[in-house]
Amino acid sequence: MTQTALSLLLSPATAVGRAALRFVAELGGLFLFTLQGLWRILVPAPSWPKIVQQVYFIGVKSIFVIALIGLFTGMVLGLQGYYTLVKFGSEGLLGAAVALSIIRELGPVLTAIMITGRAGSSMAAELGIMRISEQIDALSTMDINPMRFLVAPRLAASLICFPLLTAIFDVVGILGGYLSGCVLLGINPGVYFDRIDATVELADVTGGFIKSVVFALLVAAICCYEGYFTHARQGGFGAKGVSLATTSAVVLSCVVILVADYVLTSFLL
Questions:
Q1: Domain count, the chain
Q2: d(Cα 4, Cα 35) in Å, to the nearest integer?
Q3: Nearest-angstrom CA–CA distance, 260 and 104
Q4: If 0-12 CB within 10 Å is exposed, 13-18 middle and 19+ buried, where does residue 2 land?
Q5: Cα–Cα distance for residue pair 104/250, rounded to 1 Å
Q6: Which residues span the membrane (predicted)?
Q7: Contact 182, 76 (CB under 8 A)
Q8: Domain extent at residue 207
Q9: What is the pLDDT of residues 49-108, one digit of tens each?
């Protein structure tokens, strides 16, 4: 076998090996980046003005869209749940079905995905623009730690906002199910809320909040990482690099949210 033929035969395996090495390197870089960001939240003392500014951007400005999505998610669940349960003569369980679906799964997941689209993309784009315009390099030149100044406040604000926005989504979603089931379809309101009270346990609520905290860490870390290292991205620098970094941050965050949801659900059940 000639050297050329051997090279052609091994080229797919070489490509797979290189891709695997790049993946492991990216994963390790993201892990160290996240640890450094979390450390810079606490050491030195937290930069509260920066954190409050990010809480306003990530949390307060997301309330309306989260409430809107929660309302219509609950209304759809109420409709679908009613026409499914009525076939078995169990429409009285609608409240429990809506509440458990939202608190355990849909609340944390949809909240995280919506925040990724609204705030996560902005994080990646903002840091990416700061990178390509050399503002991050300027911070380092002035002996200002970019991780503490740019990344740590976003991580801290995400850890604060995700659980609170998930709680808003849960409450509004349950009210949406009430509108569909009780106001539109005639289920007794007392039965609707009594079933919720009898079925939902503290472990269900705790599990939803655990998921929201994990999603907060993943989304903030991925979006900040993609923006912070925009200049290292292959295939684009400048505006194209920022565009690629923002797209990658949103897509990767959404995929990781769903994968993490499956893993967490397996442990929490």
A1: 1
A2: 45
A3: 14
A4: exposed
A5: 23
A6: 25-43, 55-80, 92-115, 155-188, 208-229, 241-264
A7: no
A8: 62-268
A9: 889 999 999 999 999 999 999 999 999 999 999 888 888 888 888 889 999 999 999 999
